[in-house]
Design goal:
This protein is mainly alpha-helical and 344 residues long. It is built from nine helices and no strands.
C-alpha cells in the first residue's frame, strides 16, 4: 500500500526552457566545485589502496563524482554558463607516496559523503526545474547508497564503534524547570539527541584532524602549513571537550585516527586544493554546530557549541583570506551590482 496518494497536476510551469534560479545556480556551482576536488583526491587514494573492498568503495565514489560532474557540465553548457575551473590534474600528483592508510579512506568517505548529503538535501526543496530536480534526487539517492556501503565496511572490518547505547524509557515524561540547567543546580543527564550530535561531531572531527595532520606535513606554503597546524589544535580541543561530555555520563566515544597518517612529507595535492578542502569542510562544521544547538537543551552545551562555532568561523575567514591573496578563490554566481551599473 502506498503511503502517499499520487497527485496529477497538468502544468507547463517546469520545463527545460526556464532560466536557472539563483538557488539552482548556487547549488550546481557548489556541487561542481566539491566533486571536482573529490575527483582529484579519490584518484590519488586509488593509487595506494590494498584492500579490495575499500578499493571497490573508492572506485564507486570516484565514478559517482565523475557522473555528477558530467551531468552538471551538460547543464552549464546548455545554459552558456561558464564551467568553473575547479581542480584539475595540476592539483594532484598521482605518483606521490602514500599519505594515509587504507582504513582512513573509509572514514574519509563517510566524512565527505555527509557533507555532500547536506548540500543535496538542502537543494532538493529549493530547485524547481525538472532536470535540476532530477539531478539532485540522483545525487541524494546515489550518495545514500554509497553511505550504506561505507557503513557496511566500517562495521564488518571493525573500523568503527556505534553511537552509545542508553536505556529505553519506562514511560512518557515531561521536562521540569531544571531541563536547561548546565552550570548550576541539578544538571540532568544528556538526552538522546544531544548524545547523537556529540557523536556525530566527534566522528567528523576525528577524520578532520587526521586530514589536517597529513595536510600540515605536506603543505609547501609556510602560512598555509601554520594554518593547518592551528586547525589541528582547534579540532583537538573541540573533540576532547565533546568526548568529555560523553565520558561525564559514563558513555564511550570513538578514538582518534591519527595513527592512520603516514610519515610522508611529499605533497600529493596542491596547496590550493588542500586549503579549499578545509574551507569547505570547516564551513560544513558550522552547519553541524547549528543543528546541534537546535536539538540541545542544556546551557553548558549551547555555550560549548557557540565557542566552537566562533573559533571555526575565524578559521574559515583566515583560510579564505589566504586563498584570496593567492588568487585561488573562484567567484560563485552573484546578483547584479546595480550601483556599479549606475556609476558606469
Amino acid at each position: 500500500m502506498e503511503t502517499l496518494k499520487p497527485i496529477h497536476i497538468s502544468s507547463t510551469k517546469s520545463d527545460l526552457s526556464e532560466k536557472l534560479t539563483s538557488a539552482e545556480m548556487g547549488k550546481l556551482w557548489a556541487t561542481y566545485m566539491g566533486n571536482s576536488m573529490g575527483k582529484c583526491i579519490l584518484s590519488y587514494y586509488l593509487q595506494h589502496v590494498e584492500d579490495d573492498d575499500i578499493k571497490n568503495l573508492l572506485e564507486n565514489a570516484l565514478q559517482l563524482s565523475l557522473e555528477i560532474l558530467k551531468r552538471i557540465e551538460e547543464v552549464f553548457t546548455k545554459e552558456n554558463f561558464p564551467i568553473p575551473q575547479g581542480f584539475t590534474e595540476k592539483d594532484v600528483n598521482l605518483g606521490a607516496p602514500r599519505l594515509f592508510e587504507d582504513q582512513f579512506y573509509v572514514h574519509y568517505l563517510k566524512y565527505v559523503s555527509k557533507a555532500g548529503m547536506s548540500i543535496y538535501n538542502v537543494a532538493v526543496p529549493l530547485v524547481y526545474r525538472k532536470d535540476i530536480r532530477e539531478l539532485y534526487l540522483y545525487c541524494m539517492d546515489s550518495t545514500m547508497v554509497l553511505m550504506e556501503q561505507i557503513k557496511d565496511i566500517l562495521m564488518n572490518k571493525g573500523f568503527i564503534m556505534k553511537p552509545p547505547v542508553i536505556p529505553i524509557p519506562d514511560k512518557v515524561e515531561f521536562v521540569h524547570q531544571d531541563f536547561l540547567n548546565g552550570f548550576f543546580g541539578h544538571v540532568r543527564p544528556l538526552h538522546a539527541l544531544e548524545i547523537a550530535h556529540f557523536y556525530d561531531n566527534i566522528e567528523n572531527n576525528l577524520a578532520s584532524k587526521a586530514l589536517l595532520i597529513g595536510f600540515s606535513q605536506v603543505a609547501k606554503n609556510e602560512k598555509i602549513q601554520d594554518l593547518f597546524e592551528r586547525g589541528r589544535e582547534l579540532v583537538t580541543v573541540n573533540t576532547e571537550s565533546y568526548m568529555q561530555k560523553l565520558h561525564d555520563e559514563n558513555l564511550p566515544s570513538p578514538s582518534f585516527r591519527d595513527d592512520l597518517v603516514t610519515t610522508s612529507t611529499f605533497a600529493p595535492f596542491s596547496d590550493k586544493l588542500m586549503l579549499f578542502h578545509k574551507i569547505d569542510m570547516f564551513s560544513m562544521k558550522l552547519r553541524s554546530f547549528g543543528n546541534s544547538v537546535a536539538v540541545n537543551g542544556r546551557n553548558d552545551i549551547a555555550l560549548l557549541y557557540t565557542k566552537s562555532l566562533l573559533k571555526n568561523s575565524a578559521f574559515v575567514q583566515e583560510a579564505a583570506k589566504i586563498a584570496i591573496e593567492n588568487g585561488w578563490l573562484e567567484q560563485p554566481p552573484r546578483a547584479v551590482d546595480r550601483e556599479k551599473l549606475a556609476s558606469g
